[in-house]
Amino acid sequence: MNVPGTPPCIPGHIAIVMDGNGRWARARAQPRSFGHRAGQKAVREAVEFCLRRGVAVLTLFAFSSENWKRPDAEVGALMDLFLRALDKEVDELHKNEVRVRFVGELSAFPEVIRTRMRGAAERTAGNSRLLLNVCVNYGGRWDIAQAARRAARDVAAGELDVDAIDETTLARYFCLADLPPPDLFIRTGGERRISNFLLWQIAYTELYFTDTLWPDVDQAELARALDDYARRERRYGRAPEPAARTG
Ligand code: FPP
Fold first, then answer.
1. Could you state, in order of their start, the residue ranges of all structural domains in the chain?
2. Which residue among 2, 46, 146, 168 is least crowded, i.e. fewest CB within 10 A of its CB?
3. With bands split at pLDDT 50, 70 and 90, how would you rate the model's confidence at 245?
4. CA distance 130 to 141
5. Which CATH homologous superfamily contains domain 13-138+175-226?
């Protein structure tokens, strides 16, 4: 589904798994945190690209529920990076009329980070040129579980009829329920998997995989993903369109 106002060949909503920071750093004999810092530059490239092309929503997988299992030093470096990025990037994002939201189980983050996330979201809430969803401590299965939990609570409170639960009613309980689902899912870094990113939301999303490591992603790489997307025929389960008649 296209976001209103976006030409059909431009995805209205792009979701990205930014993979490859660690390998990029290793290739330079540097710690993984060096790769994450380089990854921050690629985030800027992606935001700039979406602004230029008129993409309405960009959803980034910045920290998965499983990333807590990484060594303490790496998790600490990522938290540090998020804090500094929140201080440094928000002015520029705001200037470019980007609205920022944080999506996931935010209660697991230290209060200092949560306060900054809230501040960034509140400050940019009135912007509408691009919506940037930063998924942190997010997992697709967590999202399904929290949706089920909230629906069950509404049933218990008498606000939702069990027999009325169908795909449409349940969809309202998922993260990003206020948005059209992603049109294009991009994963960098060579792996061909979803890795527990948006599961419910990408049922009919076009998937694009590239071997390019996330810190090397630039406008040209993203343009290739969009060119590829423009050639896709989206059918949402329907039969293919009959071939155009000739002569
Ligand atoms: C995956 O690469 C990347 C991450 C777990 C972190 C992503 C974070 C950033 C790009 C930092 C900036 C983000 C924001 C929103 C400020 P990996 O470490 O799994 O790489 P590997 O597969 O090569 O080991």
1. 13-138+175-226
2. 168
3. very low
4. 27
5. Decaprenyl diphosphate synthase-like (3.40.1180.10)
Rounded to an integer, what distance in angstroms lies between the CA atom of residue 58 and that of residue 134? Answer: 8
> Residue 234: what pLDDT?
84
Distance 38 CA to ligand 1 centre (A): 9
Contact predicate 198/182, CB 8 Å: yes
- Assign residue 21 a region: left if phi > 0, alpha if psi is -120 to 50, beta otherwise? alpha
**The residue to which tokens 């590239």 are assigned:** 210
Residue 239: predicted pLDDT: 83
pLDDT of residue 247: 34
- Report the nearest atom of ligand 1 relative to the CA of 134: 15
- Ligand 1 centre to CA of 36 (Å) is 5
User: For 71, what's the count of Cα atoms within 13 Å in the CB-facing half-sphere?
Assistant: 7
Structure tokens at 193: 């998997």
Whether the full predicted model's pTM is greater than 0.85, yes or no, is yes
Q: Tell me the best of 16, 26, 28, 36 to mutate to test the pocket of ligand 1, counting ligand atoms within 8 Å of each CB and taking the most.
A: 36
